[in-house]
Amino acid sequence: MSNFLKLVLLIISFFFINCKNGKSEKENFAQNNTRDIVISGTMDAELTSPPFVPAPVGNRTAKKLIVNLEIIEKEGVLSSGVSYMYWTFGGTVPGSFIRARIGDEIHFTLSNHPDNKLPHNIDLHAVNGPGGGAESSFVAPGYEKLFSFKALNPGLFVYHCATAPVGMHIANGMYGLILIEPEGGLPKVDKEYYIMQGEFYTPGEIGDRGLQPFDMKRAIKEDPNYVVFNGSTDALLGDKAITAKSGETVRLFVGNGGPNLTSSFHVIGEIFDNVNIEGGSTMNHNVQTTSIPSGGAAIVEFKVDVPGNLVIVDHAIFRAFNKGALGILKVGGEEDKRIYSGVRQEGIYHPEGGTIQEIPISKSEIIETVVKKTLAEKIEHGKIIYNSTCLACHQGEGQGIKGVFPPLAKSDYLNANVSRAIDIVLHGKSGEIKVNGEKYNNIMPKQTLTDNEVMDVLNYVYNSWGNNKTEITSEMVAKVKASM
Amino acid sequence: MGKIFFIFSLLMFYLSNAQSQMETIKKGSFIPLYGAVEAVKINTFEMDVYPVTNADYLEFVKKYPKWQKSVVIKLFADKNYLNEWVSDTIYNVSFKPNSPVTNISWYAAKAYCECQNKRLPTIDEWEYVAMANESQIDARKVKSYNDYILSWYEKPKTNVNEIGSTYKNYWGIYDLHGLVWEWTADFNSIMLGGESRGDGGQDSNLFCGSASIGASDLMNYAAFMRYAMRNSLKANNTSKNLGFRCVK
Question: A119 in contact with B at a CB cutoff of 8 Å?
């Protein structure tokens, strides 16, 4: 082949490659294909409160979709005994879930309740336009604003308030999710839920009681006392745990309102089969923990294989067990020993002899001021301590885990001896015990709780789940402590 | 008996004259949080000690029927105007005579003041008086002062409280914080914009209150929300948490 011919071929191939690149780049922009989708008909959007989501779009055509969202400033429960003045979209944190499909022309009315003190607006990350709608939706109390936008990109998007000071509006709970489904909808699954992480900044310590105000200094330092799912430490615990049956497929729409922290979203005891990274179109598989940035989202899907409680956490783990980022997915149904055996054999492993582990700094050495509390208050406070300290092993309903962690519900061992129970919480316990006919041989470490906290948590335990309602006093705790 | 009657009539005199009580605000200068980068001069003026009350406003609409809710020109007051009043001259039974009147438009507030030979304060005048706490002319950096304002945001339905239920400030003026928002003459002259993050790109000579970027003290978000509130309003709007007072 002559050199000339080679050169010509080279030039042609360059041309060809360039041409191809140019074309594919253009195709990568969603709007080129979706802005021309024709709408037919009008429908009112179904809005749902967390953890629930509206019905899937299925095969419906693109429509004019009417969304009415109301802003309500209202007091709610951040944690047992702790209340907070939330600013909300639709009366909940996170705000109502909005579900639309690509090509929908969304007519969005944002109304600001007359009792509210402040103007607000909304920035939907699903909007292509200045401020994501914020500019067109800035609305004084007692008024409403209507604007419309066409859903051009599929995905799971965050919406939030963007009124000055923006960080404060978000920190007070003004965020939620809007899902834009692709044509034909997302693949069918058995269960879908809506979870959104957010932080709360209050001046005192976690658990300080009563109405807690917002603390701007802490927010600027990015030092939250609460990191929670769905606006409260208890939003996905106890009766409010989300549920599924073994063998079912579960899809979680997970958002992160922030305002500051990135979530390391993880479900203890489950592997995500599919993750729509950042709520976009890239699908990852077999994921243990997915990163969800502040102002971002992800869709995670998995099949629940065996019954039991799956614990939903931010795997920046102090946030989970110390600041509230904890939820439960309760899986019912038949066990499958091939997938998870449960305990097959147990023994004690003591590399450094049989001492009980101890965390070096003991809070119980800090002198506490005596506070007079009613039994109801003790129980309420005890519940918070239980949820952050005991729940991981003894479980949400005190049911424990058969053969591993003894039950506290209707527990003969517990009810037989109050001093022994106090002693175990104060000093830990190892060796074989028998609870409700079942043998347990495990180690419970000494708990770093103050005397008052020991009193409160035991009052909660003794007054829950069919136990004998013994009232524990601080004197009883002090007596057990002194006898050691 | 006579003594009791005397005290009672004194009290009635006090209440009926609440609207006419004014205090002198001595001239001075200050740098407002938004709207100016250099000190603004304030001339001596007089300000109402309390916001205008339901009773005051009832008297006004009786005297000037064109401001009654059924006949008011819609251009000057939208349909929320006095919206909890039962009729043109009867306010809701749950209202206290001495609570601040709210759901008043800017036009209505302006007309009220003019009928008393007074006027609405400018933003700068209002802010100048409102930056005082009980003992200092400028308490904007005092923690308790800002905490008080912020805690108000978390208290629902303060508009039903009576005038004088908050603190008396350095100038002898009550209720600038903690009761209701108040109209000012030039309420919409400082543009924070509906989109409060991108305003830094606007012409800063015209819009120098450009959100957090233009704020002289980032921490003073207590005041920030007051400017944002003013900014969200149109002159014919009314709000349940928005009243007014006059100056001259």
Answer: yes
Q: Is A344 on the interface with B (CB under 8 A)?
A: no
Q: Residue A119 is nearest to which of B151, B197, B228, comparing CB atoms?
A: B228
Instruction: Give dist(CA A223, CA A202) in Å, integer.
Output: 10
Angle between helices B106-115 and B54-63 (to 10 degrees): 80
Q: What is the pLDDT of residue B215?
A: 45
- Chain A residues close to B193, C-beta within 8 Å: 135, 138
Are B240 and A141 within 8 A, CB to CB? yes
- Structural domains of chain A, ranges and CATH numbers in brackets: 42-183 (2.60.40.420), 192-332 (2.60.40.420), 368-482 (1.10.760.10)
Q: How far is A223 from chain B (nearest CA, A)?
A: 16
Q: What is the largest CA-CA distance in chain B?
A: 70
Tokens 């929670």 found at: A228
Domain residue limits, chain B: 21-243
> What's the DSSP call for residue B229?
H
CATH topology of domain B21-243: paralog of FGE (formylglycine-generating enzyme) (3.90.1580)
Rounded to 10 degrees, the C-alpha dihedral B96/B101/B103/B109 comes to 160
* A380 vs A90: which has the higher pLDDT: A90
B211 in reach of chain A (CB within 8 A): yes
Interface contact flag, A168 B221, Cβ < 8 Å: yes
pLDDT of res. A34: 86
Q: How confident is the model at residue A163 (pLDDT cuts 50, 70, 90)?
A: confident
Backbone angles phi, psi at B134, to 5 degrees: -60, -35
From chain A, pick out residues whose CB is under 8 angstroms from the CB of B197.
Answer: 131, 134, 162, 166
ipTM above 0.90, yes or no: no
CB A443 within 8 Å of CB A430: yes
- The pair of three-digit structure tokens given for residue A443, joined into one six-digit string: 């180690």
Residues sharing a CB contact under 8 Å with residue B49, sequence separation 6 or more, in sequence order: B18, B21, B22, B23, B172, B173, B174
Q: Do B240 and A214 touch (CB under 8 A)?
A: no
Mean pLDDT score of chain A: 87
CA nearest to B34, candidates B153, B193, B207, B229 = B207
Among the partner-chain residues B150, B212, B239, the one whose CB lies closest to the CB of A164 is B212
| Whether B239 contacts chain A with CB within 8 A | yes
Rounded CA separation A148/B137 (Å):
47
